Amino acid sequence: MTTHFSPRRFQDQVALVAGGAQGIGKAIAARLAREGARLVMADVDRDMMRKTAAEITAEGGSVRTLYCNVSQRRSVERLVARILGWYGKVDVMIFVAGVVRGLPFVKTQEKDWDYVIDTNLKGAFLVARAVTPHMVKRRRGKLVFMASTNSWDAEAELAAYNVSKAGVFLLAKTLARELGPYGINSNAVGPGLIRTRLSEPFIQDPKFIKKYETLIPVGRIGMPEDVAGPATFLASRDADFVNGVLLFVDGGQLA
Ligand SMILES: NC(=O)c1ccc[n+]([C@@H]2O[C@H](COP(=O)([O-])OP(=O)(O)OC[C@H]3O[C@@H](n4cnc5c(N)ncnc54)[C@H](O)[C@@H]3O)[C@@H](O)[C@H]2O)c1
User: Fold this and answer.
1) What's the CA gap between 73 and 225, in Å, rounded?
2) Is 87 a catalytic residue?
3) What residues of the chain score a pLDDT lower than 50?
4) Is 119 in the pocket of ligand 1 (CB under 6 A)?
5) pLDDT tens track for 218-250
6) Which domains, from first to last, does the chain contain?
7) Are the CB atoms for 141 and 89 separated by under 8 Å?
């Protein structure tokens, strides 16, 4: 896949990628760093974060890493306090952290529901809640939330996941209305099927992948880099008049 990038698009901007250690978050983080951002990567997976940060540094990018569990308020508040201590601002917040539990509804336990909702939806709330007061003070900021085609399309055996992703989109829209007057843009990205650690068990299932192959007009499943361009577009000045959208990146699956 050929990627076109502008080395100075995010120059002097501080960008936080929550859930940036691997998969889609890693592709977005790498793209932001290549385009000049001072990147802060936050994740629960310390090993992958270290590895990804080393790759970004080797390419000449500016990156700092911090352990953060997005479902825990204290952890998120510590993260944002550290970033403000280092740089005094957050220009871009991209919330990517996410988990999935594929389970028949009648077998879904409260702990499964809480795990998915607490990471995907409460995590988005906590990170946005922690960064937005500073963005409001500076009257600028870009919020990008990782939603999904599942924000719209209710896939069977993914009740908590579908609900979390619909919620994330509505959070993005609410903040678009509420914080737009303060110079803050809030949008969501809706990937379709993208090959990552999260989707691999589904991709390995012959029944699942056969169904998907016929669903995607472009005739392939996506790669994390397919999402990096649309997500960084929404984080860039080019998207100053884009507010409250869900940008599907799904090869036409929902067309
Ligand atoms: N892969 C797909 O097909 C697909 C499709 C639509 C949406 N998405 C969404 O994209 C996002 C990224 O998914 P991915 O496919 O790259 O998965 P992934 O498993 O490769 O990456 C998810 C990242 O989130 C981190 N994470 C998980 N829980 C966390 C927590 N509590 N605190 C901080 N970090 C945490 C993980 O350590 C990991 O680095 C998710 O929100 C997912 O729902 C993925």
Assistant:
1) 30
2) no
3) none
4) yes
5) 999 999 999 999 999 999 999 999 999 999 999
6) 14-249 (3.40.50.720)
7) no
